[in-house]
Amino acid sequence: MTIWEYLLLFLSVMIGGGVGLFLNYRNDNILRHLLSFSGAYILGITVLHMMPGVFSRETPQTSLWILAGFFVQLLLEQLSKGVEHGHIHAHSGAKFGFAFQIMVGLSLHAFLEGLPLSNHELIHPASHNHNQEVNHLLFGIILHKAPAAFALAVLLLQSGFSKSFIIGSTIIFALMSPLGAFSASLFDPNLVIFNNLIALVVGSFLHISTTILFEADDRNQHRISWQKMLVIVAGIGASLLTMH
Q1: Would the pTM of this model clear 0.70, i.e. be above it?
Q2: d(Cα 209, Cα 231) in Å, to the nearest integer?
Q3: Residues 238, 239, 244, CA angle at the centre, nearest 5°?
Q4: What is the C-alpha separation between 81 and 97, in angstroms, rounded?
Q5: What SS3 state is found at 161?
Q6: HEC assignment per residue over 32-51
Q7: Which end of the chain is less packed: N or C, by CB atoms within 10 Å?
Q8: CA–CA separation, 180 and 110 (whole Å)
Q9: pLDDT tens digits for 2-31?
């Protein structure tokens, strides 16, 4: 990754959090449409690029690592309270332990998201334009993280935390994915352990994207509005455009 990609990843979170903190504007419809697009896009990138990459190498238990990633994300959501999906469940007079729990879940989630952004030949080894591959995934992660940062800021603000505390929490959240990408860059891309880590992220992405799409169901009535359907189709279509 270039320094500009690191900065873009960091700033997307800071901007999303800043909008939530200083405007305190909450429009669930806009937020859910943006999340629906990002969920569909991440699902497409995961299936079209990341899964072929991890299965193209003869490494043991790849499928088990994908399942593990799915359930790791399930556990992380017990800590983060679904903030990465745009959930905002404020707790009046919430204590530090509440914020700490959410930050642990979100930070681990963000760190995992950053791992595939380095040594990206594992994402799609058949590709000859690896830099373009990274940009596709980076775009999907940014679309996912900006509304998550917005939801985090609004949640903490409505729970009674100070603005300085919220800014500090947002900075920590913003640093985690770049830190994951940098940590992954230290690995030898031929190592089995790194391929298994990417498989773990694949499982996590599958959980995140499908959960977002399941929540696109309007009020659990087993129907999706035509607006949300168009947004989801657009997200999948955008991921298909990344194939070459």
Answers
A1: yes
A2: 14
A3: 105
A4: 13
A5: coil
A6: HHHHHHHHHHHHHHHHHHHH
A7: C
A8: 8
A9: 888 899 999 999 998 888 887 765 556 666
